[in-house]
Design goal:
With about 475 residues, the protein is an alpha/beta fold. The protein folds into three domains: about 45 residues; about 230 residues, Rossmann fold (3-Layer(aba) Sandwich), CATH 3.40.50; about 140 residues, no CATH class. It has 20 helices and nine strands. It is globular, with a radius of gyration of 32 Å. It comes from Wallemia ichthyophaga (strain EXF-994 / CBS 113033).
């Protein structure tokens, strides 16, 4: 083919009047003479061309490597998850109702993340935009804009792949976030709060398209609907237990460790945080476009919700430790199966109450002690990692290394909390009045105490109040050894 093309080119040149082989030869000789006459410049041009070719070659290789790199989905079910049916049913009841802005509180290691992730990874019902602020990709409005727009682009690309009939629409909506980000980058100026507001508007528009799109319509019917002054209400927007007509999945925005938001977007960028919270309130409470779930282990995050006037628009739920019976079942049906010395099983079961009084109701504490501290290292309960960490936390708070004196009411408050029970808890507002706000808040900030804001899932009949905002009683409990 190349030879034929070359012959045709020669024939065409010969057909041109005045064309001669001598003129082409002289031109080639001139180039050769020029290269010989200025060898330094010729070598420089050759080197530059070689470097450019090498650069292009490397870029092609890198692109090929990126294509071969398999995508990894990190939002998956936790392995060896031990079922918590009551809490799972409560979360599903919340997700099957109208779209809500829900804040899950709970002390560290109570299993909040595993529980919510286990429910949300039901791929037949939910499509999730997960953001874990433990590994946040932003520290200011500029990086937040880039990170969130990238997440949203990936989310709608996921829609195009996982929701039947939405291949084209999901791809188009994803491109909208991509090109908005490119436009901001080309401007050469860091994204501002105005850009984040526009991003939230684009977010809203994308979900309106998601709910109002009907792949069964023809192109002409879609154009007719687009020309109307208002968008029609979707035939079945949410989210009841049965799949809707078009088998749309229920969209969920899930932000883990949400209390880090004010830390990442500090007081200098408080306006940005206000835009984000207000935008999510509109998307959930007003427009009912998606569920928003904040998950946090920091009781003080309640102050952020109050300061930004978000609390009145949220549903507050509290996840506590599993019940004592659940821990007993976890021990018999899970942990003891991993201890090969079967002659030790009766001894562990007989001493269950004593072990529970130290380890409390956290699955992870039982696993760490029985399969680690006790089985491998031969440590007693008082030498266990759980007891040691609790003692260090309390002692470090009472006798800080900075040399500052402990507020005088701290010990009195701890003694008062030790007397509290589930039936007669200590109210946080009463404790602040009696012992001082500084004393109470210092213990909360150091995670020695937790406040059980609102309805505790594992100790309530969720079927009776599944759609009600629970009472915010603000009960204080010790978050250390045992209960």
């Amino acid at each position: 083919m190349l030879r034929r093309t070359s012959l045709l080119a020669k024939h065409y040149r010969k057909s041109i009047p005045g064309y001669s082989t001598q003129s082409r030869s002289f031109f080639g000789i001139g180039d050769v003479l020029g290269a010989i006459g200025n060898p330094k410049e010729t070598l420089s041009q050759i080197t530059e061309a070689k470097n450019e070719l090498e650069k292009v070659k490397n870029e092609l290789v890198e692109m090929g490597e990126k294509v071969r790199l398999p995508p990894v989905r990190t939002f998956v079910r936790q392995p060896n998850y031990f079922s918590r049916k009551l809490e799972e049913d409560r979360v599903r009841a919340m997700l099957d109702s109208d779209a809500t802005f829900t804040v899950f509180f709970g002390a560290a290691s109570t299993g909040k993340t595993c529980l919510i992730r286990h429910v949300l990874t039901d791929n037949t019902k939910y499509i999730v935009l997960p953001i874990d602020l433990r590994i946040s990709a932003f520290t200011d409005p500029a990086t937040f804009y880039m990170s969130l727009s990238t997440h949203l682009e990936a989310f709608f690309n996921d829609v195009s792949e996982s929701v039947d009939g939405f291949e084209e629409l999901g791809h188009r909506l994803g491109l909208g976030f991509k090109h908005a980000r490119i436009d901001v980058e080309r401007r050469g100026v860091p994204p501002s709060s105005t850009d984040i507001s526009r991003l939230m508007e684009l977010f809203q528009n994308a979900f309106l398209n998601y709910w109002n799109y009907d792949p069964s319509l023809t192109e002409e019917e879609r154009k007719k609907l687009d020309n109307q002054s208002t968008l029609p209400e979707p035939k079945q927007r949410v989210t009841c237990g049965s799949p809707n007509k078009l088998n749309r999945k229920i969209p969920v925005l899930y932000i883990d460790e949400a209390h880090r938001l004010p830390q990442l977007l500090d007081t200098e960028h408080s306006g940005t945080l206000k835009i984000i919270l207000d935008g999510l309130t509109v998307l959930t409470k007003q427009e009912r476009l998606l569920h928003t779930i904040f998950c946090t282990s920091d009781s003080m995050f309640m102050s952020t919700l109050v300061d930004y006037n978000v609390l009145t628009h949220t549903q507050v739920l509290h996840v506590t430790d599993p019940s004592k019976d659940s821990i007993r079942s976890y021990l018999k049906d899970h942990l003891l199966l991993q201890i090969n010395q079967s002659h030790l099983h009766p001894h562990i079961i007989e001493n269950f109450d004593n072990i529970y009084s130290i380890l409390g109701g956290k699955y992870i504490h039982w696993k760490d002690y029985l399969l680690g501290d006790w089985l491998h290292d031969g440590l007693s309960l008082t030498q266990s990692k759980v007891a040691t960490h609790a003692k260090i936390s309390v002692e470090s708070h009472l006798y800080p290394s900075s040399g500052l004196s402990t507020p005088p009411n701290t010990l009195a408050l701890l003694h008062e909390i030790a007397k509290a029970t589930d039936d007669n808890p200590l109210d946080i507002f009463d404790a602040r009045r009696r012992f001082g706000q500084e004393v109470v808040d210092a213990l909360l900030c150091n995670k020695i105490l937790e406040v059980r804001w609102g309805n505790v899932i594992s100790r309530s009949n969720f079927l009776e109040n599944a759609h009600m905002n629970p009472k915010l009683d603000g009960s204080i409990f010790c978050d250390g050894m045992g209960d």
